[in-house]
Specification:
The chain has 17 helices and 15 strands.
Length: about 475
């Protein structure tokens, strides 16, 4: 690997496969890489002139560089020796599967889901399992609204209790772990934790000091422009944004209809506003607007290398009402004991759930990270001028369903148009309107000018109409039988 490429700036970045996790910069022994914003509001490493010695270490820890380690091999190394371990292609290895929520300290109200992740992080501190927690917290810098921070108090953990759909990177956090002895827990997304596991294989200090990895189920990551565009949708000025909050719960609405809140500060004063999921935020998410391209080539849904993974449980009986709940995938006996003891003490609600319930919840992400991914790999592998072909655990496979392929093309075009248009007009006062027009133009192009789309969409509509007519006819006939 080192003989073919000098560093990640030669392979991951130019091929659009960098997720901006910062592992490469944090572990570089020469400090040859710096993580910075690119033109599209995404984190990416930048090589500092004259410092790279071509050791190849950054390539060995990058989660998107082809290598022998993958999520399956890394997880087996950590968890396969535990009694009672099971395996599934979606959730990876697991000891136990739970659903529930926290009953204490307003974790559930303030958290994105049921607050179990916050409860667990606090328990790791108070029971002296770890000394410090590496988590994402709001930042006072308007250019970086969220960042990783190393905290050692329960109050600081609670300040990080809600999801942030915003780029964050771990380079400074890794440097701090390497320089300050102690026991650490790190909470993060699948790609970042995979990079950390690979870094732990190559650094004795990281392996000794990071004792718990807490994962979060992930469908995709967004650029920083996603938050700015939501601000514009809510009537704010993106260039004046000071602070934002994602997934703020509203007891008067369904728990899936949470909102995005923002605060803008300028010479005219303070402007606040919000956008609910049902007001367009959910549509933007589902159509891949401002999505990182690297996420199109990720096959890890449930952070398979983590000791425990938390996701949202949104359907009864495992949503427990309207205030949010978690699915929990446990791979560590220590974590399972903590959860079970917390349930016995009445601090959390915890029920075992069947594997099918978790897989059903992830059907949308399975489409993206399995079927879409395999078709993308097929397209890349058959591209005559492809400079780099990613190798994943699921082989390239051509998908014959034309509607699904057209849907993927629409989402890819949405991603390209949203990031290009916003980057080009970022500081214009009407940037929100310009992005909206560009998105509408994409829809018009596919809906009215693509004969394949119209043909197959017509077949689907006709089939549904026939089914509806037959169903109505059968209902009428039953009245006379």
């Amino acid at each position: 690997m080192a003989s073919q490429y000098r560093n990640v700036c030669d392979v991951t970045v130019p091929n659009g496969l960098c997720v901006g996790c910062g592992i490469c910069a944090g572990i570089c022994p020469e400090g040859a890489l710096n993580i910075a914003w690119n033109y599209y509001g995404e984190y990416a490493p930048v090589e500092l002139a004259g410092k790279c010695t071509e050791c190849g270490l950054c390539l060995q820890v990058c989660p998107f560089v082809n290598q022998q380690e993958n999520e399956t091999t890394l997880a087996k190394r950590e968890f396969s020796n535990q009694d009672g371990i099971h395996h599934n292609s979606v959730v990876g290895l697991f000891l136990d599967l739970f659903a529930g929520y926290s009953k204490v300290d307003n974790h559930r109200i303030r958290g994105a889901g049921g607050g179990l992740a916050t409860w667990l992080l606090e328990k790791l501190l108070t029971q002296d399992i770890v000394d410090r927690i590496c988590c994402v917290v709001p930042s006072n810098d308007p250019n970086i609204l969220f960042r990783y921070s190393v905290v050692d108090s329960v109050d600081d953990v609670r300040s990080a209790s809600c999801s942030a759909y915003y780029p964050v990177e771990l380079s400074q956090t890794i440097s701090e772990i390497l320089n300050v002895d102690g026991r650490y827990a790190v909470i993060g997304l699948p790609c970042a934790l995979k990079g950390l596991r690979m870094a732990m294989l190559r650094s004795v200090d990281l392996r000794k000091r990071i004792v718990v990895l807490v994962g979060l189920v992930c469908g995709q990551q967004k650029s920083k422009f996603f938050a700015e565009y939501l601000c514009a949708m809510g009537g704010g000025c993106p260039s004046k944004v000071k602070a934002v909050s994602f997934r703020v719960k509203d007891p008067s609405r369904h728990h899936l209809d949470h909102r995005f809140e923002f605060t803008c500060v300028s010479g005219d004063g303070v402007v606040t506003g919000h956008v609910y999921q049902s007001q367009g935020m959910s549509w933007l998410w589902g159509h891949d607007c401002f999505k990182l391209n690297a996420c199109n080539f990720c096959d890890d849904i449930t952070a398979e290398v983590a000791d425990v993974t938390f996701g949202d449980s949104v359907a009864e009986p495992y949503s427990y009402g309207n205030m949010g709940a978690n699915f929990v995938i446990v791979r560590s006996g220590l974590i399972r004991d903590l959860l079970v003891s917390g349930a016995s003490a009445g601090e959390i609600v915890l029920d075992r759930v069947p594997l099918k319930a978790i897989i059903t919840r992830q059907q949308g992400v399975i489409l993206l990270k399995r079927k879409d991914l395999q078709h993308r790999l097929y397209l890349v592998s058959h591209k005559h001028n492809a400079s780099y072909i990613p190798v994943k655990r699921f082989p390239p496979r051509r998908r014959l369903n034309p509607l699904r392929n057209l849907d993927m093309q629409v989402r890819d075009r949405m991603r390209d148009v949203s990031r290009e248009t916003y980057a080009q007009h970022r500081y214009q006062p009407n940037v929100g309107l310009l992005v909206q027009k560009a998105i509408i133009h994409v829809l018009e192009t596919f809906a009215y000018r693509n004969w394949r789309f119209n043909f197959f969409f017509g077949i689907v509509c006709f089939t549904k109409s026939v089914r509806h007519w037959l169903s109505s006819l059968m209902c009428r006939l039953r009245k006379f039988v």
